[in-house]
Every structure is written in structure tokens, then in C-alpha cells.
Amino acid sequence: MSALTMLGLAVMGAVLYTLFQKSAPAFGLFVSMGTAVLVLWKISTAAQTVLSGLTKLEQRAGGDAFSCLLRCTGVILLADYAHSLCEEAGAESLAWCTALAGRVLVLAAAWPLLEEIGQKIGSIAG
Fold first, then answer.
1. Mind listing the pLDDT tens digit for each residue in 96-118?
2. Quick check: 105 and 75 in contact, CB under 8 A?
3. Which residues, 6 or more positions from 106, have their beta carbon under 8 angstroms from its beta carbon?
């Protein structure tokens, strides 16, 4: 599914949600949930491609480096999700703190890999 089609589906769901939210909030919720399920179902082939690519990357990269990158990816996704939730709830300062915490946690998760890279560069240069 192309990105334009996916974007159109999401916009259509958002417009329908907005229309039904005032008159029938329960129906608006069902429209929103149905659109989300449809979008997730449509991207399943792309998700399978990403998972097979991750498997190939793990075989080439090695265990420690790959697990570090995977941890960083998880932290980024969770922090972004928490940031978005805080923003939508109207808690701007909490959203900013959540984004900062996510950046610090990514740096902390990537630190062992950065140290290893620095040691390899030092051994090559020295």
C-alpha cells in the first residue's frame, strides 16, 4: 500500500471521527478504532519486510551491537509515544520532560556501543 493511500485512509478516518464525535461519541470511537485496525492490517506486509531485514541485520552485526540498537529503537518508540500522549493531554511541560528523558535513555542505552567504537578507533589510530 502506498504512503498516499495510507495517508488518505487516516485522514478519512479522522474526518469521520470528528463528524461523529459530537453527535454520537461511541460511534466516533468505533470509527477511530476501525480505521486504526485497517491501517495496521494494511501495513502488515511492510512490517514483515522490516522483521526479515532485522533478522538479516542481526546475523551480520553480531549479538551485542544488535541488541544495543534494538534497545535504542524500543526506547525511542516508547518515548515518542509517551511524548505524543502528554502533548495531546495538554501537558506541554511533561511532554518536553518525556522527550528529554527519552533522549537521555537512548544515549545511556547506546553508551556501551559508543565506548566500543571509541576503543576500536583508538586501537587503529594508536
1. 999 999 999 999 988 888 888 88
2. yes
3. 72, 75, 76, 79
